[in-house]
Amino acid sequence: MATDIQDLLAFVAVVNAGGFREGARLSGKSASSLSDAVRRMESRLGVRLLNRTTRSVVPTEAGARLMERIVPALGEVESALDVVNDFRDRPSGTLRLNVPVSAARLILPAIITPFLQAHPDIRMEVITEESFVDMLAAGCDAGIRYDDRLEQDMIAVPIGPRVQRFATAASPAYLDARGRPEHPRDLLNHSCLRGKFPSGSIPLWEYERDGEEVRVDPTGPLTVRIGGAVDLSVQTAIDGLGIVSLFEDWLRPHLDSGALEPVLEPWWPRFSGPFLYYPGRRYVPSPLRAFLDFIQRRG
Predict the structure, then answer these.
(1) pLDDT 10s digits, 88-130
(2) Where does the HTH lysR-type domain lie (predicted)?
(3) Domain range holding 94?
(4) Number of domains, the chain
(5) Contact 260, 245 (CB under 8 A)
(6) Which parts of 103-238 are beta strand (E)?
(7) Same domain membership, residue 66 and residue 3
(8) How far apart are CA 140 and CA 271, in angstroms?
């Protein structure tokens, strides 16, 4: 039963984007052409692959099973075609990265521009994701995470600073009015601006000093989803609404300007920097290989 590979790519684009309009925007095709492609597939296969409503497009059970099998297969086809790049003078193709918002904001800006300037035939797609997703199923070549404990068939390569800190801060006006915490447990009597993961879990605030580790679960007037909404909590802290805890590098410009004041700085915990990870049991596409070489040369 012949199915055009372009129809398969259209189906994958729609599912990954969650709709025809967004799939069209990301793939550079029209929404009507994607819809026609999926309709042809459903007609050939004799099953419905997508449930369409006015608000969403989600795969049926058959569509989900097809996605599980076809995405890795398409990845292998792309890798096979990428072998031709070994015969080119310069690597080319698309490099797709799956990263948390913090990495997109704090790690990649110093890397992306010089990398793309050095490799003008490579294009990059960066997808931000706070959940630990199946990178291959998401159609990505590599990902960035803040933990080197990965699946057995993954390779982890350091990227960015090797040591970072979580910082706690508030506006001087807030601290003048409410007092300055001297111990992490004092935060339980303050208004704290919290973050929530997509899973619904709200991480505790952790501190360490002279071997003493303290975890607190403070409350406050605002909770934001970790990722794109974090800047909202930073701004509300600047406005004097409460205390925020975040990557030190994220807060550093506001600490340097005086808009925020460090809170409990001797207690700020250190943690290892992020890792670029990718599958170790497959051909490494030339754009990814070039990126690996680039970050390793940077140290």
Answers:
(1) 567 888 999 999 999 999 999 999 999 999 999 999 999 887 7
(2) 3-60
(3) 88-161+273-299
(4) 3
(5) no
(6) 122-128, 142-145, 154-158, 163-170, 192-196, 205-209, 212-216, 222-225
(7) yes
(8) 26
